[in-house]
Design brief:
The protein is an alpha/beta fold and about 270 residues long. It folds into 2 domains: about 10-225, TIM Barrel (Alpha-Beta Barrel); about 230-265, no CATH class. It has helices spanning about 20-25, 45-60, 80-85, 100-110, 120-125, 130, 145-150, 165-175, 190-205, 215-225, 230-240, 255-265; strands at about 10-15, 30-35, 65-70, 90-95, 115-120, 135-140, 180, 210, 245-250, 250-255. Strand 7, helix 9 (about 190-205) and strand 8 (about 210) form a beta-alpha-beta unit. The chain is globular, with a radius of gyration of 19 Å. It binds ligand LIB3CWND and magnesium ion. Belongs to the HpcH/HpaI aldolase family. Its cofactor is Mg(2+). It comes from Sphingomonas hengshuiensis. InterPro entries: Aldolase/citrate-lyase_domain, Citrate_lyase_beta/mcl1/mcl2, Pyrv/PenolPyrv_kinase-like_dom, Pyrv_kinase-like_dom_sf. Keywords: Lyase, Magnesium, Metal-binding.
C-alpha cells in the first residue's frame, strides 16, 4: 500500500494510560501521536488504557495523525484491542513484533485501517520485505529496544550491531513504497546524542523517528528536514538543469538528480 500522505518526521509514543501525556500531546508539534497499549502500560491498566485511547482519538489531536499501538498477536489483550481499534477513529493501527505478511494483512483487515508494522525481532527483519508489501501495510516502524534484546546484543553494543537490520527495514519499505521510521532514543536529556542518531537515521534513508518525550520533537523534526544548504543546492540544481546528462558545477547530473531535488523541496 502506498501511503498518500507524506511520512511523519516525528511520531511520539505515549502510554494511553497517562491522561496528562494525552492532554500534553494535543499542544505538541509532533506529526503523529501513537497511543500505546503495549509495553508502556501495566497489565492491570490495560482495559482502562484501551478505553482511554479510543476516547482520546475520538476527541482528536488536531492536525496530528493518531495511531493506537495494540498488544501483540497471542497476548491476552490482542482481541479486545483489535475490536477497540476497529470501532475507533484512529488513523492507523500499530502492531508490535510483526513477523509475517499474513499476520500484518489480517490485523489491518480486522481493524479496517492502514497498519504500521513494528519490525523488532530477527524473524521480523528477515520477513520485512514481505511485511512491507502486505495488503493494508502503510509503513514499517523500527523497534530498536526489542531488536537489541532479541538479537541478544550486550549493553555495550551500539547501533552498529543493528546496521543490517536498520538497512533491511529501509530497503523493504522503499521497495514497497511505504514509510520507514527509525526507533526510539531512550536517553531523555541528551539532545546532542539524539541529534546525532537522527542524522544517522536520515542518512540511512528513514523518513522520520519514533520518539518518547516532548523534548525530543524539535530535535528530530530539524534533523529529518532538509538543511538550508540542501534547499539552496536543490533550487540551484533545478534552475540550472536543461535535461539529459550535463555538467553542473563540478559533477554530472541527469534527470534523476532533478527529480531528487524536487522531491527534497516537496517535503519542506
Ligand atoms: C519516559 C517517561 C516515563 C518520562 O516521564 P516523566 O519523567 O514523567 O517525564 P517529564 O516529567 O519530563 O514530563 C514532562 C511533561 O511532559 C509530559 N510527557 C512526558 N512524556 C510524554 C509523552 N511521551 N507524550 C506526551 N507528553 C509527555 C509529562 O506528562 C509532563 O507533562 P505535565 O505533567 O503536564 O507537566 C515518559 O516520557 C513516557 O512515558 N514516554 C513514553 C513511553 C512510551 O510510550 N513507551 C512505549 C514506546 S517505546 C517502545 O516501546 C519502542 C519499541 O517497541 C522498541 O522495542 O524499541
Ligand atoms: Mg518494542
Amino acid at each position: 500500500m502506498t501511503t498518500a500522505r507524506l511520512a511523519p518526521r516525528t511520531a511520539l509514543f505515549l502510554p494511553a494510560s497517562n491522561p496528562r501525556a494525552i492532554a500534553k500531546a494535543r499542544g505538541l508539534d509532533a506529526d503523529m501521536v501513537i497511543l500505546d497499549l503495549e509495553d508502556s502500560v501495566r497489565d492491570d491498566a490495560k482495559a482502562e488504557a484501551r478505553a482511554a485511547a479510543v476516547a482520546a482519538v475520538a476527541e482528536g489531536f488536531g492536525p496530528r495523525l493518531a495511531a493506537i499501538r495494540i498488544n501483540g498477536i497471542g497476548s491476552a489483550e490482542h482481541g479486545a484491542d483489535l475490536d477497540a481499534v476497529a470501532g475507533s477513529v484512529a488513523d492507523f493501527v500499530v502492531l508490535p513484533k510483526v513477523e509475517s505478511a499474513v499476520e500484518a494483512a489480517a490485523v489491518a483487515e480486522a481493524c479496517g485501517r492502514p497498519l504500521l508494522a513494528m519490525i523488532e525481532t530477527p524473524l521480523g527483519v528477515l520477513a520485512a520485505a514481505a511485511i512491507a508489501a502486505a495488503p493494508g501495510v502503510g509503513g514499517l516502524l523500527t523497534g530498536t529496544n526489542d531488536l537489541a534484546a532479541t538479537l541478544r546484543l550486550p549493553p555495550s553494543s551500539g547501533r552498529g550491531a543493528m546496521a543490517l537490520a536498520l538497512q533491511t527495514i529501509v530497503l523493504a519499505a522503499r521497495a514497497a513504497e511505504v514509510w520507514a521510521l527509525d526507533g526510539v532514543f531512550n536517553a531523555l536529556d541528551d539532545a546532542q546524542g539524539l541529534a546525532a542518531e537522527c542524522r544517522e537515521g536520515r542518512a540511512l534513508g528513514f523518513d522520520g523517528k519514533t520518539l518518547i518525550h516532548p523534548n525530543q520533537i524539535a530535535v528530530a523534526a530539524a534533523a529529518f528536514g532538509p538543511t538550508p544548504q540542501e534547499i539552496a543546492d536543490a533550487e540551484a540544481l533545478i534552475a540550472a538543469a536543461t535535461g539529459g546528462a550535463e555538467r553542473y558545477r563540478d559533477r554530472m547530473i541527469e534527470t534523476m538528480h532533478v527529480d531528487q531535488a524536487r522531491a527534497l523541496l516537496a517535503r519542506l
